[in-house]
Amino acid sequence: MSKNTQIQVFEQQHLQLFKKISDTIKAKKQLEEQEAKVKQELEKAMNAYDIKSIDNQFINVTRVKESISTTIDLKELKEKEPNLHAELLEDYPKTTLKKSYLKLTVK
Predict the structure, then answer these.
(1) CA pair distance 12, 15, nearest whole angstrom
(2) pTM of the complete model
(3) Longest Cα pair distance anywhere in the chain, in angstroms?
(4) What is the pLDDT of residues 1-48, one digit of tens each?
């Protein structure tokens, strides 16, 4: 059986899984949009009443003020100072094992 035929058979056997994950991703996106709107409304109301935190039977909410953080732009450092970047990478390496995963794009 050719590779293309194997893929077609696999696709037909698991078509319902493809539909289910696609529907789930779409529903998640809608819920995330709804969550963002509700959070924005709640933040506006908490700001209006100058409430910093609230804890009730539904949820614990803490308003975190805007802040600024400064980091090193490693991409720019690598472009402008390749030797320094290489030295730092050699002196301060950090290795991270990344778990395998599925990358999904809903159509």
Answers:
(1) 5
(2) 0.71
(3) 68
(4) 888 899 999 999 999 999 999 999 999 999 999 999 999 999 999 999
DSSP 14: T
Q: Which two tokens stand for residue 44?
A: 């506006």
Output DSSP code: residue 57: S
Rounded Cα distance between 25 and 106, Å, is: 7
Element (H, E) at 55: strand 53-55
Element (H, E) at 53: strand 53-55
Q: What is the DSSP letter of 36?
A: H
Both structure tokens of 94: 């950090």
Please, are residues 102 and 14 in contact by the beta-carbon 8 Å criterion? Answer: no
Outline where the chain has alpha helix (H): 3-13, 15-48, 74-80, 82-91
Rounded Cα distance, 32 and 23, in Å: 14
